[in-house]
Amino acid sequence: MAMVLSDETVKTAIDTAALTRRLRLLRRRSQVKALLLVAPLMIFLVSVFVLPIGVLLTRSIDNSDVSRALPTTAAALATWNGRDVPGEPLFAALAADLKASSREDVAEVAKRLNNYESGIRSSLLKTARNIRNAQAPFQAAFIDVDARWANPERWSVFKQAMPKMTDFYLLAALDLQRSEMGQITGVTPKNAVHLDVLLRTFAVSLSVTILCVLTGYPLAALMARSKGWVANALLILVLLPFWTSLLVRTSAWVVLLQSRGVVNSGLIWLGLIDAAQPLDLIYNRIGVLIAMTHILLPFMVLPIYSVMKSIPPVYLRAASSLGAPPFSTFWRVYLPMSMPGVSAGGLLVFILALGYYITPALVGGPRDQMVSYFIAYYANQVTNWGMAAALSAILLVAVLILYAIYNRLIGIDRLRIG
Amino acid sequence: MNTALSFNRLVTLGLWVVGGGTALFLIAPIVAIVPLSFNAEPFFTYPMPGLSLRWYEEFFASDVWQLALRNSIIVAIFATILSTILGTLAAIGLSRSDCPARATLTAILISPMIVPVVVAAVGIYYAFAAVGLLNSLTGLVLAHTVLGAPFVVVTVTAALSGFDQNLMRAAASLGAQPVEAVFRIMLPLIAPGVASGALFAFVTSFDEVVVALFIAGSEERTLPRQMWSGVRETLSPTIAAVATLLIIFSTLFLATIQWLQRRAERQKLTQFE
């Protein structure tokens, strides 16, 4: 009897195990199917979007150009004490490297070194041209071209530039630098431009967000109170600009705000301002704030509106019937209940504003350009990938942190469109 | 009671003044630029001395603008096709009940909506330079697909969340192959979601200027890219004419989207009946 029972038990156990295995296999197969459906877009996005941005970001710390172009010098510098004028072997090493390098490589090295000491670029290029046909002793030949080769400081620049990785660009993006002793200090006021740009980006985004809250909240409240065709008409007034091309809206503002544009000529016609002195509404901060607020306002109005629509009117009636004056009904019931919409819209507007490029570039002046403009400038105009990458990294980190907060507070899946 | 009533009236009045003012602010530039495109003189001021269609003639007769229009349409069509196919497949995968790491995958798939477009543009520029895709329509199509696909993922995922998965089981039990069930049951039901995703992808590409600034040469100039130059260099009323045409386009787009959403809602209602 005992034997039979345990036989049965064993058999059931095997069946259960087999069933579990089979179920797990089916589940695994179904998971693989789901992943296979996601895979094409994922592979595409990784190769055309994620990897390119990753590679770009590595440029913010990459410094291998110098040591790759000057390998012998790198080895010789390791034995230099850093204080005295180096001896002939180091000069000979640099001469050998310069002779072996292509013109483009030397130009790239010169550009890199110029980050540490301005003026070294032209000196190095000139030296490289002359040294191609020179013979030993090289020390005399170098100093003959440019007396500054006798300065130990000149060589410590080379030493600083040799490591394969550098924090130079990331520090420079925050207006910081490393002194020769390796300490982090502020850059000279003349070169301190980036912190100003970052603060300006923050200030413009914050101002736009506040302007959007102040104008968007009443509009959303009006929409939530309206019924029938009025509500529909208001919704269309918000959605039409939302779906109109960004460039159309920005150029419309250029047309409107120009010194001889629609707004100024209208004010002159009304006799409010003198024809000889039109208001400066464009190519300055006012223009940027007007145009950006206009473009980002729907992102504020729509979330607030959808939250307000969900506030049951009975709450407000309950507050009044319990004796709350109208203002406290608003302040203590309606406003707190509509706050999730305000924080969702506010965060979204702020995040989007941080990355704005086109609108400030078209309606702002030189002092209104934000960090995106400088990323584009470094990448396109002066081909300084290190700086473009470092500023990109800072902007990207700021945006990702804010999105993480957004995700925590509101949920990224609530990121709705339309 | 009387004071409360007058307070309410005051609030309504205040809301109409501030909220209505904001609504006018939103629509004003769009309303103001349309008539200027019919101005007989090359100025941007009212009152206009006369009406003419010369700026539209200039747009349709100019080789540069026509090339830009053609490039924009070609790039937008191909980017839309690619984003719609890739995005719909991914959304179907993400909506399967046993999709692993759904949150992480979704976050990566919609990241192009989040990353500042300049960062994306510089990264793509850097990568495309290495593989020779700069100054080509192909490169532009690929980049615009990246930017458009997340919208398809979001809209189709939303459409699938209202889709009754039991219908697929019913189809299977009636002998339908999985692919057949997708094409004959699922796709017809989520079609409004797919269509609005495709429209979003089209508009995203048609409106995109930052990436085009970086990776397109003069032969691949798109309409927004050409407008950018127009606004920066010589601001002629041709810009107003192009803007008006684009406003008509976005009005049609908005109407289509609204119609699709109404249809999707109606469909949801009939499913319950």
TrEMBL record, chain A:
Chain segments annotated as coiled-coil in the UniProt record: none
CDD domains on file: TM_PBP2
Transmembrane region(s): 34-57, 197-217, 229-246, 252-274, 286-308, 314-335, 347-365, 385-406
BP GO terms, sorted: transmembrane transport
Keywords: Cell membrane, Membrane, Transmembrane, Transmembrane helix, Transport
SUPFAM superfamilies xref list: MetI-like
Topology in the lipid bilayer: Multi-pass membrane protein
Classification via InterPro entries: MetI-like, MetI-like_sf
Subcellular location: Cell membrane
Main location group: membrane
Gene Ontology cellular component annotations, sorted alphabetically: plasma membrane
Domain of life per record: Bacteria
Pfam families: BPD_transp_1
Domain ABC transmembrane type-1, residue spans: 198-406
PROSITE patterns for this protein: ABC_TM1 (PS50928)
Keyword set includes Zinc: no
Family designation: Belongs to the binding-protein-dependent transport system permease family. CysTW subfamily.
Record's protein name: ABC transporter permease subunit
Organism, as annotated: Shinella kummerowiae
Automatic annotation (TrEMBL), chain B:
Pfam families: BPD_transp_1 (PF00528)
Domain ABC transmembrane type-1: 69-258
CDD domains in UniProt: TM_PBP2
Biological processes annotated in GO: transmembrane transport
Keyword tags: Cell inner membrane, Cell membrane, Membrane, Transmembrane, Transmembrane helix, Transport
Entry's transmembrane regions: 12-38, 73-94, 106-128, 140-160, 181-203, 238-260
Key word Zinc present: no
Topological type in the membrane: Multi-pass membrane protein
Keyword Transmembrane helix: yes
Gene Ontology, cellular component aspect: plasma membrane
Record's subcellular location: Cell inner membrane; Cell membrane
InterPro entries in alphabetical order: MetI-like (IPR000515), MetI-like_sf (IPR035906)
Similarity section: Belongs to the binding-protein-dependent transport system permease family.
Official protein name in the record: ABC transporter permease subunit
Upper classification of the organism: Bacteria, Pseudomonadati, Pseudomonadota, Alphaproteobacteria, Hyphomicrobiales
